[in-house]
Amino acid sequence: MNRIKQLFQTKKDILSIYYTAGYPNLGDTIQIAEALEKSGADMLEIGFPYSDPVADGPVIQASSKQSLDQGMTLKLLFEQLKDLRKNVTIPVLLMGYVNPVLQFGVENFCKACAEVGVDGCIVPDLPMVEYEEFYQTCFEEHNLSNVFLITPQTAEERIHKIDSLTNGFIYLLSSSATTGKNLEVGDTTESYFGRIKAMNLKNPTMIGFGISDKQTFDKACAYANGAIIGTAFVKAIADGNLEESVNGFMKNFKK
Length: 255
Prior knowledge:
Layout: H1 3-10, E1 14-20, H2 29-38, E2 43-47, H3 58-69, H4 74-80, E3 92-95, H5 98-104, H6 106-116, E4 120-122, H7 128-141, E5 145-147, E6 149-150, H8 156-165, E7 170-173, H9 187-198, E8 205-208, H10 214-221, E9 226-229, H11 231-236, H12 242-250
Parallel strand pairs: 1-2, 1-9, 2-3, 3-4, 4-5, 6-7, 7-8, 8-9
Helix pairs in contact: 2-12
């Protein structure tokens, strides 16, 4: 069974951490993954950088630029990940935009993910209709979960369609803003989260965008199976000793 499915069957209040591959230094990708698992992360999302992001806020944009400037590519990332499963046992997803995947080749991408032990992908700008028509079979043949995103404006019909195509979890954006905005759970947001929860979707949900500390993490977990932290973690590792930075950040979430 896919590691993502196993995780959601055995744990609540799942903490997933996003970070940019090749940041802050080009060779840090695996070290960060290992440190995150040791310090209590339940799932990892490794971002492969792209020069023209559409959903990333300034912090993740800057980390992507630095990574690209240092020479990060999808080819290099897969080379770095070849030893991923020596010490990392938790689910790992790759997150990025569709252009680099198309340039790499979707079949090559899925095959490479399977070879290094990646469990799923989040490609926000991959149209659902194209995934279903052209790529779903390839993803499934390589046991990869493809994660779709839902926003407060997503129509109910589309949400049900996403639920039918999903074999991992559904990513609930807390707002339609870019990454890095603080989570504000007002009446509108509560209504949105509550509406999704009341739909009784067959797949678990994770809330992302604006989750930065234990307080916002706990708020999100009241409405979903867990939450995703990106910007706050990328900030935390920007300088200083990596292991110390990771441990210091993760201590905030220890029960």
